[in-house]
Each structure stands twice: as structure tokens, then as C-alpha cells.
UniProtKB/TrEMBL annotation:
<keyword id="KW-1003">Cell membrane</keyword>
<keyword id="KW-1278">Translocase</keyword>
<dbReference type="GO" id="GO:0015413">
    <property type="term" value="F:ABC-type nickel transporter activity"/>
</dbReference>
<dbReference type="Pfam" id="PF00005">
    <property type="entry name" value="ABC_tran"/>
</dbReference>
<dbReference type="GO" id="GO:0015833">
    <property type="term" value="P:peptide transport"/>
</dbReference>
<keyword id="KW-0067">ATP-binding</keyword>
<keyword id="KW-0547">Nucleotide-binding</keyword>
<dbReference type="GO" id="GO:0016887">
    <property type="term" value="F:ATP hydrolysis activity"/>
</dbReference>
<comment type="subunit">
    <text>The complex is composed of two ATP-binding proteins (NikD and NikE), two transmembrane proteins (NikB and NikC) and a solute-binding protein (NikA).</text>
</comment>
<keyword id="KW-0406">Ion transport</keyword>
<dbReference type="InterPro" id="IPR050388">
    <property type="entry name" value="ABC_Ni/Peptide_Import"/>
</dbReference>
<dbReference type="Pfam" id="PF08352">
    <property type="entry name" value="oligo_HPY"/>
</dbReference>
<dbReference type="InterPro" id="IPR003439">
    <property type="entry name" value="ABC_transporter-like_ATP-bd"/>
</dbReference>
<dbReference type="GO" id="GO:0005886">
    <property type="term" value="C:plasma membrane"/>
</dbReference>
<keyword id="KW-0472">Membrane</keyword>
<dbReference type="InterPro" id="IPR017871">
    <property type="entry name" value="ABC_transporter-like_CS"/>
</dbReference>
<dbReference type="GO" id="GO:0005524">
    <property type="term" value="F:ATP binding"/>
</dbReference>
Length: 452
């Protein structure tokens, strides 16, 4: 799809279906603590494709696995992280099914003042970590969702459904609330993973079982997540294979994965993901293993499915060319951090982080000379808390302060709040000294006290 068509599609937007705030996922190995995802924030809206792009080791897959709660030991999601699933129908259903794990946040707000709580020692986050400039902007929902509510004695460990408008007593009338994915466990977790949120991996064989027919695997997903069984499930499985463009679906529904080509297998995996009727589809390099022609076909298929089903999609790739094809918004990741975020047109027209510019220069066909420019060096392992710019050692525009001040995400231009970059050269209206001072201040301000 061309950039022009994207512009038309991105004009109207609903509220987000998922809100990621200050997500931190670390692996505690014997040698070191790897901060694979180190405080990232972004939203995804229904019908929107959010691309995550970055070189190998930047934390893209760990982000996806964190949203799916598929992070295994020695890794875990750290306190301070929040991933809110805000799909209203699901919130209502959860409040009714898991009433004992549902909290009325609007009622709690009458007892607790978030500003007072935020000054307590149990909370070691900055307002910037929650995406604010000032401490008084932090809400009770932010505090509780980030996991501080337990230590403060406000919520119980199992609580994971938070109602901000309405009461848990009448679930159908709930007007606003969220399921905190980082707090899910047991049945509540199982119903989200592979149900409301489905994932397609790079290698289709990791998702397909060689000993069952493709049809039976899709039918199992239909039974588990939608309660569809028997002949109805067979019909639906066939319809799904047709929907993902598998020819002769009636026959192929009875075949085994090894009888499918690579491209057809990935289509079958997408059909399986759709069998759960998800709200959010996460694709982690779904076309990387395929040849270029098949890759283009799968991208077209995903774009089409997304539009017809109004799916929210998170699409991971290291390929800026693929991003241009599929994404509405883009998060550029580097060493565990989102270093730039913008809608896709803005990102390509006005890339502001030197890392993004480097990635764009390495797209084949984009450079003036005949040599493909790549960024020299590798992504460092983020094994210490960030006290500098992790890209500085490779950055052509680095200044001395990049070694001593950690850049936070700020608007590139004050008039464009949706375009942010974590670079000491931003905001561009400010002088370098002023900008550096702004980044320094936002890092230094712990809880309490307003910034600027
Ligand atoms: N199970 C694990 N144990 C220890 N470290 C891990 C584990 N999984 C990931 N990491 C580390 O987390 C960091 C981010 O890895 P991740 O897989 O998210 O990168 P990526 O951006 O998806 O890269 P790629 O493009 O190669 O898939 C890397 O430094 C990686 O070594
Ligand atoms: Ni990956």
C-alpha cells in the first residue's frame, strides 16, 4: 500500500485498545541483568497497524512476548510496567466472570489522593515514566496498574480488572476500564493470550503441530476460544482457509502442515490466529523467512484482513521497506528503548533521531551512491540502567552530553505532540543547551515535586 493511501486511512481514530506504559522486561542471568525492554510506552487503536522496527537485539520480540505474557524465567516484567487492555466488551465480560478480581477505581479515588501516594517511598518512578511532565498529572489508575497498589495496600495481588467509569456490580453498564495484562494469571490470562490477543511468529512451524491436520488445529482454536464444534467448526475452518487465500480449502483442510509450502503454512497460521477472533494481532517478522514475492502477498493479506475485521495490529520487522508498506504508526526501538515514534508519513518525511535516519539510509534503493549504507557497529546489550544515550557510540551527531545525560522521549516539534524522539537535539525549537537541560531535569525528578 502506498503512503498516500495510508494518509487517508489514518484520519479517524478511536480510543486505544491497548496502552503500554513504561514497560520494562529484564532477564536476570548469572552474568548480568539484561534490560531487554527498558521503559517503553505506546498505544494501538482498532484498525491501526503499529510497526516496531529496529536492528537485531533491540527488544522487539521481548516487547511482543511481554504483551502476550510469554516471558519465561530468567526474564520477567518489572514493577512500574503497565499494559492495559481497554477493549470495552472484554472489560465488561471480565468484570462479570472475574468479579472477585475486579476493582472499582472511581470509588477508591474518593479515599486516596494520587498526588499524596506518588510522594511515598514505595513509588520510585518519575512522572516522565508515566508519560507526564508533572507529578499532579499521575492518576490512581497509573499507580495501581504499574503494580504499586499492592505495597501501598490499596489492592490485592490477584486484582487485574480496574473500572474507571461504572461499577463492577453492573458489568454491562461499565463505560470505561481496563484489564491490566501484567497482573493476569490463570484462566483470566489464558482467555487473553491466543483469545483476545493472537500472535503470528516468524517460523510458521513453531505454531503448527506436525501430527495434526491443519483443519484440526484450526478447529481446536475455534473450540477453545469461540466454543464452535463439530460440523460448524469444519465449515468455519474451511472458510478461514479461504479467507486467507488458500486455494482448494475444502481439500487442504484435511492436509498436514508438511503438505503446505512455506507461504501457505504462514497463511494457515494466520487462519489459526483469526480462529480465536482476536482484537489485537501481533506479528513478529511473519514474512522474514519467505521469499520476496510471497512476502508481498502475505503483507497484502494482513492489510486486507485487518481492514475488513477492524483488527488492531502490532507488526515487528527490522525492515524499513516493510514498515512503509504496512504501518500506520511506527515505534523505532534501540537497545530496549523507543527512540522515535511518529505516523509513518512523518517518520519517512522527517526522521528526527539519528538512528532512524541511519535505518532509512540502509533501505535498498534509497541511497544516492551504489553502496548500501549501514550503521556501523552493533546494538549494545542494555545491561545497566540508562545514564547516557545508548546510541551515542554509533551516532554521527553525538555531543559530549550524550555520554552523561539519558535522553527521554520529547516532542520533536511543540506543534506535533505525536512525533517524539529520545534525543538531546530535541525539541528542535530549543537551543542544544536548553534541550539538554530539559532531558536532565526529567531524569532527575524522582517522585514528588513538579517538573519545571
Ligand atoms: N531468554 C532470554 N534470556 C536472556 N536474554 C534474552 C532472552 N531473550 C532475549 N534476550 C535479550 O534481550 C534483548 C532483546 O532481544 P529481542 O529478541 O527482543 O530482540 P529483537 O529486537 O527481537 O531482535 P531480532 O531482530 O534479532 O529478532 C537481546 O539482548 C537478547 O539477547
Ligand atoms: Ni525478534
Amino acid at each position: 500500500m502506498s503512503l498516500h493511501e495510508h494518509a487517508e486511512r489514518t484520519t479517524t481514530r478511536d480510543a486505544p485498545i491497548i496502552e503500554v506504559r513504561n514497560l520494562q522486561t529484564a532477564f536476570f542471568t548469572e552474568k548480568e541483568t539484561i534490560r531487554a525492554v527498558d521503559g517503553i510506552s505506546f498505544d494501538i487503536r482498532p484498525g491501526e497497524t503499529v510497526g516496531i522496527v529496529g536492528e537485531s537485539g533491540s527488544g522487539k520480540s521481548v516487547t511482543a512476548r511481554s504483551l502476550m505474557r510469554l516471558v519465561d524465567a530468567p526474564g520477567r516484567i518489572l514493577e512500574g510496567s503497565s499494559v492495559r487492555f481497554t477493549h470495552l466488551e472484554t472489560v465488561r465480560e471480565y468484570a462479570s466472570t472475574f468479579a472477585g478480581r475486579t476493582v472499582d477505581l472511581s470509588a477508591l479515588e474518593e479515599t486516596y489522593d494520587p498526588v499524596d501516594l506518588f510522594e511515598r517511598n514505595e513509588i520510585d518512578a518519575t512522572p516522565a515514566a508515566f508519560g507526564y511532565e508533572h507529578a499532579h498529572e499521575v492518576s490512581l489508575a497509573d499507580i495501581v496498574a504499574a503494580g504499586y497498589g499492592d505495597e501501598l495496600g490499596i489492592v490485592d495481588e490477584g486484582d487485574c480488572i480496574f473500572i474507571t467509569d461504572g461499577t463492577p456490580d453492573s458489568p454491562d453498564a461499565i463505560a470505561d476500564g481496563f484489564i491490566e495484562i501484567t497482573r493476569l494469571s490463570g484462566e483470566a490470562q489464558r482467555r487473553i493470550r491466543g483469545g483476545r490477543i493472537a500472535m503470528v511468529f516468524q517460523d510458521p512451524l513453531t505454531s503448527l503441530n506436525p501430527v495434526y491436520t491443519v483443519g484440526n488445529q484450526i478447529k481446536e482454536a475455534l473450540r477453545l476460544h469461540q466454543g464452535i464444534k463439530g460440523d460448524a467448526a469444519t465449515r468455519e475452518a474451511t472458510a478461514l482457509l479461504e479467507a486467507v487465500g488458500i486455494p482448494d480449502a475444502r481439500r487442504r483442510v484435511n492436509e498436514y502442515p508438511h503438505q503446505f509450502s512455506g507461504g501457505m503454512r504462514q497463511r494457515a497460521v494466520i487462519a489459526m490466529a483469526l480462529a480465536c477472533d482476536p482484537e489485537l494481532l501481533i506479528c513478529d517478522e511473519p514474512t522474514t523467512a519467505l521469499d520476496v514475492t510471497i512476502q508481498a502477498q502475505i503483507l497484502d493479506l494482513l492489510a486486507e484482513l485487518q481492514e475488513t475485521r477492524d483488527l488492531a495490529m502490532m507488526f515487528i520487522t527490522h525492515d524499513m521497506g516493510v514498515i512503509a508498506e504496512i504501518a500506520d504508526r511506527v515505534n523505532v526501538m534501540y537497545a530496549g528503548e523507543v527512540v522515535e515514534t511518529a505516523d509513518v508519513n512523518t517518520l519517512f518525511a522527517d526522521p528526527s533521531h539519528p538512528y532512524t535516519r541511519g535505518l532509512l539510509r540502509s533501505i535498498p534503493g534509497q541511497q544516492t551512491g551504489d553502496r548500501l549504507e549501514t550503521i556501523e557497529g552493533n546494538v549494545p546489550t542494555p545491561n545497566e540502567p540508562a545514564t547516557s544515550c545508548r546510541f551515542a557510540p554509533r551516532c554521527p551527531e553525538a555531543i559530549d552530553e550524550c555520554e552523561t545525560v539519558h535522553p527521554v522521549s520529547v516532542p520533536v516539534d511543540e506543534d506535533e505532540p505525536d512525533h517524539t524522539a529520545a534525543c538531546l537535539h530535541c525539541p528542535t525549537q530549543l537551543s542544544t543547551d536548553q534541550a539538554v537541560e530539559m532531558h536532565r531535569r526529567r531524569n532527575a525528578t524522582r517522585n514528588g515535586g513538579d517538573l519545571e
